[in-house]
Amino acid sequence: MGKTFELEMSVRDYECDIQGVVNNSVYQNYLEHARHEYLKTKGIDFKEYADKGINLTVTRAELDYKYPLTSGDKFSVTATLEKESKIRFAFFQDIFLLPEKRIVLKAKIIGVALNAKGRPYIPKEFEEILDN
Amino acid sequence: MGKTFELEMSVRDYECDIQGVVNNSVYQNYLEHARHEYLKTKGIDFKEYADKGINLTVTRAELDYKYPLTSGDKFSVTATLEKESKIRFAFFQDIFLLPEKRIVLKAKIIGVALNAKGRPYIPKEFEEILDN
Amino acid sequence: MGKTFELEMSVRDYECDIQGVVNNSVYQNYLEHARHEYLKTKGIDFKEYADKGINLTVTRAELDYKYPLTSGDKFSVTATLEKESKIRFAFFQDIFLLPEKRIVLKAKIIGVALNAKGRPYIPKEFEEILDN
Amino acid sequence: MGKTFELEMSVRDYECDIQGVVNNSVYQNYLEHARHEYLKTKGIDFKEYADKGINLTVTRAELDYKYPLTSGDKFSVTATLEKESKIRFAFFQDIFLLPEKRIVLKAKIIGVALNAKGRPYIPKEFEEILDN
User: Fold this and answer.
1) Handedness of CA D48, C72, B75, C81 (dihedral sign)
2) Which has the higher per-residue pLDDT, A2 or D4?
3) Angstrom distance (rounded) from CA D72 to CA A46
4) pLDDT of residue D61
5) CA-to-CA distance for C54 and D18, rounded, in angstroms?
6) Integer Cα distance of B115 and C55 in angstroms
7) Is the pLDDT confidence value at D5 over 70?
8) Which chains would you list as touching A if contact means 3+ CB atom pairs under 8 Å?
9) For residues A46 and D71, what is the distance between their CA atoms, to the nearest angstrom?
10) How far apart are CA C36 and CA C50, in angstroms?
11) C interface mutation test: which of B7, B10, B11, B12 has the most C CBs within 10 A?
């Protein structure tokens, strides 16, 4: 599907834990990195937003762990963006083990943009993505 | 409630990100640490289990982010354990900002124990907690 | 010795890596956390400094790894502060496994304070500690 | 120089801290990842070694922080390996901001290989690299 953003990454050994697999919390790092890279392709820079006092904030994360990544694995992280409510948006993200594209994790990350006063709003750049 | 485990922790500056608040993924670290400490009080040691080939594995995480923690904050992390299905168990965990006990995060972490052959089962020590 | 700051901490399982021991980079987190806690006892808050545009910056780190920490270990981190040059200061820090006080790591962390213009200077509060 | 290994990477936002720059400890992650990738090109796999009971262990790290990396930066990490003593080897590693190749960090990481009995030795595969 043309709309889906996809980023290839690989496991770094320090991301693995005692069990020899990528620690649960690290997948959130992967997902966040892919979201930020995706937004950049749409002209939205997380750090510039933060510098302007606009904070992109996660309000809910749902993560289904399907298969563990381990040392040496290559994988891809996808991202699509949908409107969740008047003021909330949702990223749907999958992680696939490469090259076989076995599903590793499915996530729904709900977020909101807060302006400098802490009020939620949908930035113009987001409207444009969501309209697509 | 007598059954609820509670662990006090404090934010470390390196856990905060560009926005000046604790990064989303770090809360999973807090939750995991509290779960492991809770299990230890019940005679279950995560690393010993791993050494014996028993892997305690998260299959789903639901995280509701309510209020951000920041540099210098003290907080508590709770944990209760319930049976989710024949082979799955669920931790219900809250994070509270101290001393006012403002809710920071609510989480439901569903897990499974896999024996050395990768087969799910409920370890005896878990049965005993779940029976309580 | 009265001047030495000491902070007790314990290993969190997610800080351990494939080898089952605390990952090398994590010790820098422990050391940073202890430095910041030490500075707080002297009225110096890392985040407040950052907010005012004063950045406390590490320019060199020397770390001697003596003995690995692992899951479940308790340890203490010390900190003393000395003048290294006209504009640089040095933290001498040790990590000890508890309760036997076996040496785990010895570190010398050299730093500098940069004002809002990026110029190095020794903040007044530092002068007072260094004079002690 | 033909012998130098070089790996291109980019900063992930979660690696930046309150000051808006990459946290000091994260550079050790970058360096470790580059070392492991370098060793892989020589047929040495960190995890396989760990599984066989051979632990590659850092005994000393010297890190000179020259210029901070921040959100969005691309950089390269180099690695060369030299014999440090009969049983110790040393990685010399630089991090360069791209594309201008401004120096970000210079590191010397001294290590040792411990066999299953915890005895230091130089694995055959290392001898071959060191001989080059």
Assistant:
1) negative
2) D4
3) 10
4) 98
5) 12
6) 50
7) yes
8) B, C, D
9) 9
10) 12
11) B12
Cβ-based neighbours of A3, under 8 Å, separated by 6 or more: A80, A132
**Alpha-carbon span D54 to B100, nearest angstrom:** 49
Q: Distance from D29 to chain C by nearest Cα, in Å? A: 6
How many residues belong to chain D? Answer: 132
**Rounded Cα gap, residues A9 and A93, in angstroms:** 14
Q: What is the pLDDT of residue A132?
A: 53
Q: Say which residue the tokens 């030495």 belong to.
A: C4
Q: Which amino acid is at D17?
A: D
3-class SS at B48?
A: helix
**Single-letter amino acid code for the residue at C50:** A
Interface of C with A (CB under 8 A): 13-14, 16-18, 20, 23, 25, 71
β-pairing, A55-65 vs C55-65, is unpaired
pLDDT at residue number A50: 87
Contacts of D32 in chain A (CB under 8 A): 12-14
Contact status, residue A84 vs residue A110, Cβ threshold 8 Å:
yes
**Which residues are within 8 A (CB) of D100 and not within 5 positions of it... i.e. 6 or more apart?**
none
Q: Taking the model in full, what pTM does it have?
A: 0.95
Question: In sequence order, which residues have a C-beta less than 8 Å from that of residue A45 and are 6 or more positions away?
Answer: A39, D71, D72
Question: How distant is the alpha carbon of residue A81 from its chain centre?
Answer: 10
Report the run of H or E that residue A32 belongs to, with start and end: helix A24-41
Residue holding tokens 């404090």? B10
* Interface predicted TM-score of the whole assembly (ipTM), two decimals: 0.93
Give the C-alpha separation, D55 to D48, whole Å: 10
D68 Cβ neighbours under 8 A, 6+ residues apart: C57, D19, D21, D22, D104
Please name the amino acid found at residue B22: V
SS3 A42: coil
Alpha-carbon torsion (A28, A33, A36, A38), positive or negative: negative
Instruction: Give the CA distances from residue B129 to residues A117, B3, B106, B125, D57, in Å, rounded to whole numbers and listed in that order.
Output: 46, 10, 21, 7, 39
Report the residue from A12, A20, A33 with minimal CB separation from D14.
A33
Distance CA D88, CA A18 (A): 26
The dihedrals phi and psi of B11, each to the nearest 5 degrees, come to -65, 135
Please give the Cα distance from A49 to D106 (Å, whole number): 32
